[in-house]
Amino acid sequence: MSDVMSDVPASVPASVPVPTHFQSFLAFDFGAKRTGVASGNRLLRTATPQATIKAEGADARFAQVEARIKEWQPDALVVGVPYHPDGAPHENTRRAQKFARQLRGRFNLQVFEVDERYSTTEALSSGARDADAASACIILEQFLRSLL
User: Fold this and answer.
1) What are the protein's UniProt keywords (predicted)?
2) Which residue, 61, 115, 133, 136, shows the most beta carbons closer than 10 Å to its own?
């Protein structure tokens, strides 16, 4: 399937300019068993943790993602993409990128990818009770700080 005719580009790195009319965002810290979720907005540049999605398998996960999107009505989505410390991709990099592509395809929203190295470590070191949701907050706040 080609994106040539679509008015919404495929997943793009956060370094791509974000249209100023995009104000609200939902972020995901993708995991095979748990996916952290955070909501936030451009004005305050803060993120709020949401209940972590605990679902294995794409159908169960996307049913919960769809419910969150309907609830929050975000202008765009943000997905944390993990890399090795040296920046090299690994299997979870590819899984998170696939998740980002699937989000875009299913919900027709622009998806921004953010390098999420150390977000879980940072969440755990801060004493987060839900490291997945806290990591999604860190990912989203990093994204929001990058906006002009």
Assistant:
1) Cytoplasm, Hydrolase, Nuclease, Ribosome biogenesis
2) 136
